[in-house]
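Why should sequence recovery work at all? Because a backbone constrains its sequence more than one might expect. Tight turns favour small or flexible residues, buried strands favour hydrophobic ones, and helices have their own preferences. The token representation captures these environments compactly. In the example below, the structure is given first.
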């Protein structure tokens, strides 16, 4: 009798459990479908009815838009005695990564461990991605090591993220190492088009054309790689950047042969490729072909054709497409910047100002002038000999609350130098360095085989960064790096540290040290061993530099100096080495 009673109770309980589970799934699906305030209001109803569970909380957490919302939900879960699971913490970790709050992301890892939960592959992959986007490669690699120590198996996303962040931080060898691990099926992974795409971008960024082309050749032999439009878009962009035009056309034809569909990104890349080579009519033909095939141009496609037309001063054509964008309600900011830049490069400053005013008056905030517009105007006024007018635009930039970038600092510093506003130039330069920008173009004079980098007046940290930038961005196959240094009242340079920094990279290059204004050590006198020629390198004192200036018959104008440096310094070095 007791057995029959238990069986009857179980039969009653099972449908009740099924109903609860069914209701829970309906609640979960509704929470996933809702967003913002509607989602929160419905979740409040579920909580008041006592029906909330961890799955419902996770649905709300994935819809949270800020760390504060996520942490508030975490506190509410604890009040409702709902235990967070790995998904809860990982969702909040992803929000923290999106907001670049890596301290919160790390705290989520700690809380998982303290709760007896094991952070998963996705959590660590998000952590790696977050550090990578902030340019913190060592921390990203350390997170990867922690992942492996926790016996977690990296997935395709993990390796794609590692390849991408290593290449963006200039470490292509390490990116290749991770790519090869996937090719060798480490951790049981199979190489896919996603991993190949990441490596194509890596070679494109590092301008390694032959390796990029080799990658395109071998991918057909890898059965798990199914080349798609995204992969070929990356390859088209890379070949357009570092290859010959013929390479781009050949790849376009290969896409047609393989039946790879051309999307708007591919068309935009090809339009840009044709435009950069002056083949404007063919670029326009491609734009019309794209439209005829049913691709509705987006803001990027319009910006590309507008930029192509602007560079050949076809203002009527550029304005025509700009008006089309306006009629379609597309974002005008970037297209407006392209036209303003074209106006400024052709000395049409009044037209540029008019278009700037039109963008400023737009009711849509996303159409308002970007920093690119002001950068173009400042450069335009500086180029026509009105640097002081250019400088006044900086106040407008500050008033608009626009975030400045490296390009802006470049032209603003050049305008300040032209106006002989030395004190303001020095302040702006240090601001740029403090913002982790590299505004060193204004300090460089380039000749045929020579780079002269003037670090006179920079703080020691800025000088070291400038040298590093010159080696990374500009040296390439130049034979000689001339570093002009000096001694300010505030700064004392560590000569040996700077020299070691340069010589560790430039093993086969003359490094010329020039002391400007007669002072760096002991009123311009260097120690005997610092004057010695070691390994084919030459240290030039203040006296020797001025001898060179006299020999080269340098004028006072910068362009004269650049020409003389390009033509005569190699001979000067040979003479001094012989002596």
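From this structural description, the recovered sequence reads:
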């Amino acid at each position: 009798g007791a057995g029959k009673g238990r069986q009857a109770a179980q039969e009653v309980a099972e449908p009740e459990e099924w109903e609860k589970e069914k209701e829970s799934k309906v609640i979960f699906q509704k929470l996933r479908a809702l967003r913002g305030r509607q989602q929160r209001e419905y979740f409040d109803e579920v909580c008041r009815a006592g029906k909330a569970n961890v799955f419902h909380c996770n649905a709300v957490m994935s819809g949270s838009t800020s760390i504060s919302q996520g942490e508030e939900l975490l506190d509410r879960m604890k009040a409702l005695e709902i235990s967070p699971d790995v998904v809860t913490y990982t969702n909040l970790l992803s929000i923290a990564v999106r907001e670049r709050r890596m301290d919160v992301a790390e705290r989520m890892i700690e809380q998982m461990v303290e709760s007896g939960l094991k952070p998963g592959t996705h959590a660590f992959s998000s952590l790696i991605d977050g550090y990578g986007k902030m340019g913190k490669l060592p921390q990203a690699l350390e997170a990867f090591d922690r992942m492996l120590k926790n016996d977690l198996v990296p997935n395709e996303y993990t390796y794609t993220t590692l390849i991408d962040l290593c290449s963006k931080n200039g470490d292509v060898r390490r990116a290749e190492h991770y790519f090869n691990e996937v090719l060798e099926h480490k951790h049981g992974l199979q190489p896919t088009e996603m991993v190949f795409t990441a490596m194509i971008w890596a070679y494109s960024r590092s301008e390694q054309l032959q390796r990029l082309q080799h990658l395109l050749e071998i991918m057909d032999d890898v059965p798990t790689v199914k080349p798609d439009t995204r992969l070929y878009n990356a390859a088209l962009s890379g070949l357009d950047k570092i290859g010959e035009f013929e390479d781009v056309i050949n790849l376009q034809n290969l896409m047609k042969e393989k039946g790879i569909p051309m999307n708007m990104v591919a068309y935009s890349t090809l339009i840009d490729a044709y435009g950069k080579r002056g083949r404007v009519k063919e670029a326009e033909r491609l734009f019309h072909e794209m439209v005829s095939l049913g691709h509705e141009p987006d803001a990027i496609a319009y910006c590309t054709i507008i930029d192509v037309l602007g560079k050949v001063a076809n203002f009527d054509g550029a304005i025509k497409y700009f008006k089309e964008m306006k009629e379609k309600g597309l974002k005008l900011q970037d297209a407006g910047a392209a036209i303003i830049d074209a106006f400024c490069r052709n000395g049409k400053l009044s037209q540029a100002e008019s278009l700037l005013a039109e963008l400023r008056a737009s009711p849509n905030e996303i159409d308002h002038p970007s920093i690119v517009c002001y950068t173009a105007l400042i450069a335009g006024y500086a180029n026509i000999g009105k640097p002081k007018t250019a400088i006044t635009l900086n106040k407008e930039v500050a008033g608009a609350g626009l975030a400045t970038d490296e390009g802006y600092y470049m032209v603003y510093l050049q305008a300040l130098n032209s106006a002989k506003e030395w004190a303001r130039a020095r302040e702006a330069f240090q601001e740029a360095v403090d913002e982790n920008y590299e505004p060193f173009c204004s300090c460089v004079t380039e000749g045929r085989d020579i780079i002269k980098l003037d670090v006179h007046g920079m703080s020691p940290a800025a000088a070291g960064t400038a040298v590093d930038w010159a080696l990374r961005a500009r040296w390439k196959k130049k034979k000689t790096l001339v570093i002009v240094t000096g001694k300010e009242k505030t700064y004392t340079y560590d000569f040996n540290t700077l020299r070691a920094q340069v010589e560790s990279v430039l093993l086969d290059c003359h490094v010329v040290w020039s002391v400007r204004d007669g002072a760096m050590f002991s009123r311009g006198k260097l120690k005997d061993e610092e004057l010695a020629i070691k390994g084919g390198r030459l240290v030039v004192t203040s006296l020797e530099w001025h001898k060179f200036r006299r020999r080269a018959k340098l004028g006072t104008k910068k362009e004269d100096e650049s020409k003389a440096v390009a033509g005569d310094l190699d001979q000067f070095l040979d003479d001094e080495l012989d002596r």
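A few observations help interpret the result. The longest helix spans residues 2-33.
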